[in-house]
Design brief:
This protein is an alpha/beta fold. It is built from six helices and seven strands; from the N terminus they run βαβαβαβαββααβ. The protein starts with a strand and ends with a strand.
Amino acid sequence: MITVVLPTHDSAARLVHVLPLLVPAAVDGLVKTVVFADAGSTDATLAIAEDSGARVVQAAGDAGERLAAGCAAAKSVWILALGEDLVLPEAWRTPVEAHLAGGGGKPAFIAAPGLFGRPMAVLASREAVEAAGGFKVGAEPLKALLGRLKPKAVRLKV
């Protein structure tokens, strides 16, 4: 149902925390594909991708460029794009499933705790991402995309 896009570059230490959160959702069919948009990792990142069955797309540049390349490789209608820190709350799945079931196709995001928490992940259809101009080069690509998706994007309660 969704493709998860991870902008990676020597990210092995962070991947060991996020991938176990995706496995149950992959087993149940919520996560169809995981794409590592990688900028030439020299650590164990690519071995982790191979072991996990993730697809690897080579993409030089900052996180925005890597997210753009990963989204271009996505085949699912829905994309869950994570920030470069690859952080996802343990309870991410329930609100994502509820949103997909009743969100009417609106983009959504998961933010760090707090009223003005920084976006950790963006959930949007490929169509919405493309209509908003996709991910761009520059700091905070998730926040920038959300700025173009608003006011349609809703914050998921995690």
